[in-house]
Amino acid sequence: MSTQEEPGPLLRVDHAACCRSGACSLVAPDLFDQGEDGKVLLKNPRPPGHLLAAAEEAADYCPVSAIELEAPPG
């Protein structure tokens, strides 16, 4: 029996749209950080299921909708 979780949805970020608000890294620090230029850095494009709520919240909080969740296949 495996103890690993299935990966969650694919996270995509639009770096050109990022306005450097930092909301994503505040809401979901396990998934997002900010680079030296203040733009979003994605730590894991396929986060485990237990971080799905944080990923959804970060996408909701992004003021320019630069974060997108794509449902996993199947």
TrEMBL record:
PANTHER family referenced in this protein's UniProt entry, alphabetically: FERREDOXIN (PTHR36923)
Q: InterPro entries, from UniProt?
A: 3Fe4S_ferredoxin, Fe-S_cluster_ET
Q: Which UniProt keywords apply?
A: 3Fe-4S, Electron transport, Iron, Iron-sulfur, Metal-binding, Transport
List, separated by semicolons, the cofactors it needs: [3Fe-4S] cluster
Q: Which domain of life is it from?
A: Bacteria
State its role.
Ferredoxins are iron-sulfur proteins that transfer electrons in a wide variety of metabolic reactions.
Please give the name of this protein.
Answer: Ferredoxin
Task: Look up and give the organism this protein is from.
Answer: Streptomyces chlorus
